[in-house]
Write a structure and sequence with these properties.
Blueprint (H helix, E strand, L loop, with lengths): L2 H9 L24 E10 L2 E11 L4 E5 L6 H8 L7 E6 L3 E2 L5 H7 L1 E4 L11 H9 L15 H13 L15 H13 L5 E5 L7 H14 L4 E5 L3 H7 L2 E6 L2 E7 H4 L3 H11 L1
Bound molecules: adenosine-5'-triphosphate and magnesium ion (MG).
Keywords: ATP-binding, Nucleotide-binding, Transport
Protein name: Branched-chain amino acid ABC transporter ATP-binding protein
InterPro entries: AAA+_ATPase, ABC_AA/LPS_Transport, ABC_transporter-like_ATP-bd, ABC_transptr_urea_ATP-bd_UrtD, BCA_ABC_TP_C, P-loop_NTPase
């Protein structure tokens, strides 16, 4: 083993490395310090590096905000984690043993990584509850799911999740009739149906009212702890209201990382990002 291997994956002790522990395939092993390990990731599109030697770690239960100018690589980062985009170089592990670069998008979703896209993709002709039923059927689920009777346990889980996102009173409303903010929360609830350990949320508050933004901040904070949550957002007031650790991306690399108050006073960050959007 090279010296580099010994010290990477964030100083993981050799006996904890893949293949050295009796872990069932497909089982998330969070025996290490982190739940997500991205090291030296590069993604090129026609020679342009959307991600450039990016290294990032996420701890179990943490709420991590990712900020950075347009084109910094934030969405590409999420694409790599979810298997939509394959990195040219670098490694991306979920827990100690799951190599995300070798898994399909469906396998990654099933393994416990959920993603909420910016545009809500709820099924408007179905009720909030039916949307969760469809989501519960999983990435391979079909409309047949609605014909199967749900068990009491499944119903409880759906109702509990609707309550978490503040939509229990709207359970029988058609999703298409919900407000924009409510649709976003319903979609978060749909992602939660798969019980993800890591939840990726890309620009959750675009188009929301101030009140909806506040509710979303509370929701994401309440989800952290039980889940690791990675949030990409441009709205600095929102980021300040939820941020614990912030990672600033610039030209596909990590420009700065740390507590919000330190990052926002970092001259490099002010120059490339906060100067414009502050
Ligand atoms: N499929 C693709 N083909 C070619 N270039 C791409 C592709 N996807 C992303 N890019 C480029 O990679 C860079 C990073 O894009 P990305 O979408 O990750 O940025 P972002 O930080 O999410 O930006 P925004 O804040 O605007 O959402 C951009 O210059 C973008 O044009
Ligand atoms: Mg983006």
């Amino acid at each position: 083993m090279s010296l580099r291997d010994t010290f990477r994956r964030d100083q993981v002790f050799a006996p904890l490395r893949p293949g050295t522990r009796p872990v069932r395939p497909g089982q998330l092993d969070t025996g290490g310090k982190h739940i997500l390990y991205m090291e030296d990731i590069t993604v090129s599109f026609d020679g342009f590096k959307a991600l450039n030697d990016l290294t990032l770690y996420i701890k179990p239960g943490e709420l991590r905000c990712i900020i950075g100018p347009n084109g910094a690589g934030k969405s590409t980062l999420m694409d790599v984690i979810t298997g939509k985009t394959r990195p040219d170089t670098g490694s991306c592990f979920f827990g100690q043993t799951m190599d995300l670069t070798r898994m399909t998008e469906t396998e990654i979703a099933t393994a416990g990584i959920g993603r909420k896209f910016q545009k809500p993709t709820v099924f408007p002709e179905h009720t909030a509850l039916e949307n969760l039923e469809l989501a519960m059927a999983g990435p391979k689920g079909t409309w047949q799911a609605l014909l199967q009777p749900v068990t009491g346990q499944q119903y409880d889980w759906m109702a509990q999740t609707l309550e978490t996102v503040g939509l229990l009173a709207q359970k029988d409303q058609l999703a298409g009739a919900l407000s924009h903010g409510q649709k976003q929360w319903l979609e978060i609830a749909m992602v939660l149906m798969q019980k993800p350990r890591l939840l990726l949320v890309d620009e959750p508050i675009a188009g929301m009212t101030r009140q909806e933004v506040e509710r979303t901040a509370e929701l994401l904070q309440s989800l952290a702890g039980e889940h690791s949550v990675m949030v990409v957002e441009h709205d600095m007031e929102f980021i300040r209201s939820i941020a614990n650790t912030v990672t600033v991306l610039h030209q596909g690399s990590v420009l700065a990382e740390g507590k919000m108050q330190d990052v926002q006073n970092d001259p490099k960050v002010i120059e490339v990002y906060l100067g414009e959007t502050g």
